[in-house]
Design brief:
By secondary structure, this protein is an alpha/beta fold. It folds into three domains: 137 residues, P-loop containing nucleotide triphosphate hydrolases (Rossmann fold, 3-Layer(aba) Sandwich); 63 residues, Orthogonal Bundle (Helicase, Ruva Protein, domain 3); 121 residues, Zinc Finger, Delta Prime, domain 3. It contains 16 helices and five strands. Strands 2-3-4-1-5 form a five-stranded parallel beta sheet, with helices on both faces. Helix 12 packs antiparallel against helix 13, helix 12 crosses helix 14 and helix 15 runs antiparallel to helix 16. The N and C termini lie far apart (48 Å). The relative contact order is 0.09.
């Protein structure tokens, strides 16, 4: 029996899960021996039963469960938002103690992978499974670690990348590893053996303006004025007028407020798309990731400041460029 709990950044988690499956030869299994399940649709007896079954004409049975620990976490969290949802999930997280008890008794032919996004250290099911599972947390790199990740990923694709190009990619795309990996793949093919430069990034990277707004808003809310001003200046250099930039920032803050509200109400993924008014997985992934890092109060405070600046511009009391600079430099109040 091999049991893994792999959680954290979705890109790193999926890559690790693929590596574990390859290590155990799960790609060669018959479909009858490959089980992929959603945690919110399971109860303990069902999952334990699948894990205890022997494989058919194969040396291994693969069981991958997505989102189980997050479901247990939402049920244990305070408030009534998550209660009553997940009708098959066994009610209280205490009900999943049966899984932790059963793991050591499962056949050696079972490979169990419990896959999740970010989890709190206090997650009750995580605490129950730590003694009996191999637990791996994969957090997204930031700062210098992100720069090293970009460099190493480019090298793995057979390309070299200049320091200025690394900084430009980090500024424009941020910590979205899915998008970074896709753009590095495209850049490595475009550069065709030469070093990827900043000009290549400007020319080839898709969603640059969208990503710049995501990162600029994040920098504003995080209180990183230098990064925010640099990103907004890049938009200005691309010919975007201050009023257009302010409108884009307003749109992103509005999406953040909607995402934060939807997350607090624990809406499922399809409802999240409807709440944000988009069908784009990129927009949902970036917006929810951003909203997860900020409180509802911080988002609302920044949104109110933006509306005040917009009104001052329209009434002629503030120059648009100055209004942008003031917005960036204004720090949220400490609570």
């Amino acid at each position: 029996m091999a049991a893994f709990v792999v959680f954290g950044d979705s890109f790193l988690v999926r890559r690790r899960v693929a590596a574990v499956e390859a290590e155990y030869g799960a790609d060669a299994l018959l479909d009858a021996n490959r089980h992929r399940m959603q945690g919110g649709q399971l109860n303990p007896a069902e999952l334990v039963g699948v894990c205890q079954a022997l494989p058919f004409m194969d040396p291994l049975r693969l069981v991958v469960v997505d989102g189980l620990l997050a479901t247990a976490e939402s049920r244990s969290g305070g408030g009534g938002g998550g209660r009553g949802r997940g009708r098959r999930g066994g009610g209280s997280p205490d009900g999943w103690q049966a899984l932790a008890d059963a793991v050591p008794q499962m056949p050696d032919t079972t490979l169990l992978l419990l896959v999740d996004g970010a989890l709190a250290a206090s997650n009750p099911l995580l605490r129950q499974l730590r003694p009996v599972c191999s637990v791996e947390e994969h957090t997204a790199p930031r700062g210098e670690q992100l720069a090293r990740w970009i460099k190493q990923t480019a090298e793995a694709k057979g390309a070299a990348v200049s320091p200025t190009a690394i900084r430009s990619l980090a500024d424009l795309v941020g910590g979205d590893l899915w998008t970074l990996d896709q753009e590095l793949e495209k850049l490595s093919l475009y550069a065709a053996g030469r070093e990827i430069g900043e000009g290549d990034v400007r020319l080839m990277v898709s969603q640059v303006r969208e990503a710049s707004i995501f990162e600029a808003v994040d920098a504003m809310i995080d209180g990183r004025p230098e990064a925010a001003l640099r990103l907004l200046a890049q938009l200005r250099d691309d010919g975007r007028e201050p009023l257009y930039i302010i409108a884009m920032v307003e749109r992103q803050l509005r999406l953040l407020a909607l995402a934060r509200d939807a997350m607090d109400r624990r809406l499922p993924a399809d409802d999240m798309k409807r709440a944000l008014g988009t069908s784009s997985d990129f927009v949902v992934r970036k917006t929810t990731g951003q909203a997860r890092r900020h409180t509802r109060q911080d988002i609302a405070w920044r949104y109110d400041r933006l509306l005040e600046a917009d009104l001052a511009i329209k009434q002629g009391r503030l120059d648009p460029d100055l209004a942008l600079e003031l917005l960036v430099g204004e720090a949220a109040p400490r609570r």
